[in-house]
Structure prediction request, 667 residues.
Amino acid sequence: MFKKVLIANRGEIACRVASTLHELGLRSVAVYSEADRGALHTRIADEAFALGPAEPRASYLDGGKLIEAARKSGAQAVHPGYGFLAENADFAAAVEAAGLTFIGPTADQIRAMGDKRAARALAAKAGVPVVPGAEAADLAALTRAAAKIGYPVMVKAALGGGGKGMRAVHDAGELAEAVESAQRVATAAFGDGTVYLEKCLERPRHVEVQVLGDGRGDAIHLFERECSLQRRHQKVIEESPSPAVDEALRARMAAAAVALGRAVRYHGAGTVEFLLDRDGSFHFLEMNTRLQVEHPVTELVTGVDLVRQQLVVAAEGALPFTQDQVRARGHAIEARVYAEDPAREFLPQSGELARLRWPHGAFVRVDRGVEEGDRVTVHYDPLLAKIIAYGPDRATALQRLTGALDEARVHGVVTNLPFLRALLRDGAVRQGAFDTEWIGREFLAGFTALATAPAPELAVAAVALAEMLGLAQGAAPASGNGAPASAPDPFVTLGHWRHPGLG
Amino acid sequence: MQGAYRDGARVRAVEVTSEGGGRFRVVVDGAELQLTAEPLEAGRLRIVTAEGVAIAEVTGAGNRRFVRLGNLDFVLEREAGSRRRASQADGGLEAPMPGVVTRVLAAAGDAVKKGQALVALEAMKMEHLIRAPRTGRVKRVNAKVGEMVQGGTALVELEAEAAG
Prediction:
């Protein structure tokens, strides 16, 4: 096993990886950009190395600087987390070329699965059903292909992932703009603007299977995760097991995922994503060659620490247990807490976390990237934490997660907590009756009306009272948050606001 | 003893009168509440109204006031002058959120049509187009490609609307 591991990431995932390293008695090395100086992940790690400016390209996406930091620190291995360089084949190759171990699949596997078209071909070859789709070089050819597949179609970046650059197109008139936009986003994000088309399944569910491979042709699965609760292709709530999957279907999906893992001699932890059609058929969507954001739900139902298994496979090239030894028990649900304003089209938010309290339930896990007093900047993904609840059954897990979200306090930065709380109380969510478009189609309008409704008079009164009683002291105005510093303060100019009797 | 808070698209007017002994008369948008308020620790307040007891937790952050009441959260913003409204009257086009300018599609002096895209911002995984709210002429562009901007930054200014 390694003695020291560099975590090439930030935020909650860097903190989460560090926890497993420490549990195993390994030293952890954090990296940070200027915007993350003093961030929680640098405080948790044993050592921290500065990378450079806030811009990801000059810090967390700069492979050379990361490898240099690993060398300087004496780390033997690099854990990429998710996002940033986690699925960058060149980075994985450069890490290995520098004599370090990349904790993840091989560069070739990342490359093959990262090219979504190549991945489709690999899946098909392994006997895994794929969504009907087409590739074409230019807009005219894409237009012909789309007509042949039949609208609606999905425009996807060949090197995309996590919904980036993905657009649904409902008729030919929208195609040109969608293709252009997807190409631009893909070029900026992945350095390659190639796009392809896939048929949009109607109201599908997103169900994915966690796999672990030893890199020598053996692979096992750790059951499925249900990730259909999405907003604009971004997962919001994930759970395991899926309420839509029965034993027979579970066995078929798991077998397909394992077949793909074996066919590519997959090395480490990966996820095979499927779209589950309403008729019970499922289609390969993509394989994510990294740890997923939602991996904790699998950890809670299986009792397997996935980061630990990643380390074991990377260090020893063997799976630490067999398929028969993996059992799933109970139910786990995760909610992603983002710094975004659900009343204003989920615009990312920044500021200082003036008051922050995460829940403390006995069956609640919080994977957090921030603590009270930390700043949320505009530079990176606005995920603050993941709150995950476990229960013997789905209803109990839901009840615990609802309670945990109610208990959470995040003041100073607007979050999506009200959205998550409302979502978990919805009848369809409680019944498990949703698909990947359900939030946008049936939930969002009602929620937005609620979120933009006037605050109750008592809430306004409470704020005014707290202010009058001198209780609302919080963070100083953030620089550049739009609050004009020189504006007259109505509570100062109205000097009699403070009642003499309150001294 | 009055103040005002922005609550989403609205402005909420509030007037508080202390009646001694922790009793207050609070008028919010003309609706009157009689209550007692007892400060607890750390921004918490115990409020008793005719309808019952509520614990409110209030946190200040700049001009914003975050309030938790029961199991609901609200964010109000102290009304602080008229600068924002003035900027909009000038035809200022503000970044709706923090992000990175990816494209600048207009320059000072350009004649633009209502709805025309002027600046593209990338925030997280989405591109957001800042469009002209009306037909007019660009007075100034305050955005550079690659620049990180905060929400509320005026990216483009249009010439004042010609009369008639």
